[in-house]
Design goal:
With about 375 residues, this protein is of the alpha/beta class. It contains twelve helices and 14 strands. The protein has helices spanning about 125-140, 155-165, 185-195, 215-230, 230-240, 260-270, 275-290, 290-295, 300, 320-335, 350-355, 355-370, and strands at about 10-15, 20, 25, 30-35, 45-50, 80, 85, 90-95, 110, 115, 145-150, 170-175, 310-315, 340-345.
């Protein structure tokens, strides 16, 4: 556990008052699962919010217990002397609204009925998830966010944070993300959702009290997603056309190739930790995210933002390609905003934002420690 934040505990905060969602629906109560690392200083101006990707959770760093062998999903970047240095910063990570890892979502119990919400849970947007996180930061009494950072979907939320709360966010780190999904990306999400809905066990979202869950549909959705997270080079490097535990084809419909086995494994382990309805809701929120459509143009979207930006892309990421990152960069430059940009070469595809740590750590650490002006009390 060298340079680790050590053993951490997920905490919970309940927002009792109604939250008005972008759809117009008012929703309450909302419990938010979160973890914190480091200490909030007296001036409460050293807080950094890190936001997870599509199927992540609040456990971003450290270990759940002494026997835990797998640290949080961004552990290599969060901790003493790391990119998000917990000797200096108070780092917060929450589970997304609508999720299934402690924050209120479709699998949570509706206090009015005593049953899981299921698909009676309201459809929400990325802006709604940001609103919920802002309520948690208000609970801490934080008046200014030193930085908000996220990759993939987390980058969308970070972007929306800087836009929705221009006087609140001092700096923003956007990694492997986009201001709106391409039609191709929406199509992959649609196929994943259709796989879940077509599973007979889905039962119109009312499967929580059933012995059989829509595991096959959720597993297939995850397999589809994983194809988009890799790139052709990554697949060739990792699998090629190698067979799985055999020397020849079986001439049936069992698994022949290693890539098939990999996808099946990823789908199988996913059903043990994620809720099918949450997958439907969260992917829909990502599909709806479109800053240009919402604000009329990207220039309008970012016009009031006062944040400094660091934007990182990866050359092999075809899901959220560098061209989409550059569109954001060019918009910020037109608006005379303070923006730094780096494209990292990597053979890992979209997954690079979770794998290429060494280069990211240097870039992020430099941005936070040197580029962001203003004193904080450590």
């Amino acid at each position: 556990m060298e340079n680790s934040v050590g053993i951490v505990k997920t905490k919970y905060y309940t927002i009792e008052e109604n939250i008005k969602l972008e759809s117009g629906v008012e929703f309450a109560p909302t419990t938010v699962a979160y973890e914190t690392y480091g200490k909030l200083n007296e001036d409460k101006n050293n807080a950094i919010l890190v936001i997870h990707a599509l199927t992540g959770d609040a456990h971003a760093a450290g270990y759940r217990n002494e026997n835990d062998k797998k640290p949080g999903w961004w552990d290599v970047l969060i901790g003493p002397n790391k990119a998000f240095d917990t000797n200096k910063y108070f780092v917060i990570c929450t589970n997304i609204f609508g999720g299934c890892s402690g924050t209120t979502g479709p699998s949570s119990i509706n206090p009015k009925t005593g049953e899981p919400y299921g698909i009676t849970f309201p459809v929400f947007t990325i802006e709604d998830t940001v609103l919920v996180q802002k309520k948690l930061l208000d609970y801490f009494g934080i008046k200014e966010l030193y930085c908000v950072a996220g990759g993939s979907m987390g980058g969308m939320e970070a972007m929306q944070f800087a836009i929705s709360y221009p006087d609140f966010v001092k700096s923003t780190i956007l990694i492997a993300t986009t201001s709106r999904l391409s039609p191709q990306a929406i199509a992959f999400n649609a196929v994943g959702r259709n796989s879940i809905i077509s599973d007979p066990a889905w039962n119109n979202g009312n499967y929580y009290n059933q012995e059989t869950k829509p595991d096959r549909g959720l597993s297939n959705a995850r397999m589809i997603g994983h194809i988009t997270y890799l790139c052709e080079e990554a697949m060739y490097n990792k699998f090629g056309r190698k067979l799985q535990d055999k020397d020849h084809y079986d001439f049936n419909f069992d698994i022949d190739f290693q890539v098939e086995s990999y996808l099946q494994h990823q789908g199988q382990i996913f059903i043990d930790r994620f809720d099918a309805n949450s997958y439907l809701y969260i992917t829909k929120a990502v599909d709806y995210f479109d800053l240009e459509d919402k604000y009329g143009s990207l220039e309008n979207a970012f016009s009031k933002s006062k944040s400094k930006y660091l934007i990182i892309s990866f050359d092999s990421d075809w899901l959220f390609p560098t061209s989409q990152a550059k569109e954001i960069v060019n918009t910020l430059m037109k608006l005379d905003k303070d923006v730094s940009f780096c494209e990292i070469q990597s053979p890992c595809g979209h997954d690079a934002f979770l794998l290429e740590y060494e280069v990211q750590e240097k870039i992020i650490k430099s941005f936070l420690d040197n580029h962001i002006k203003g004193e904080i009390n450590e």
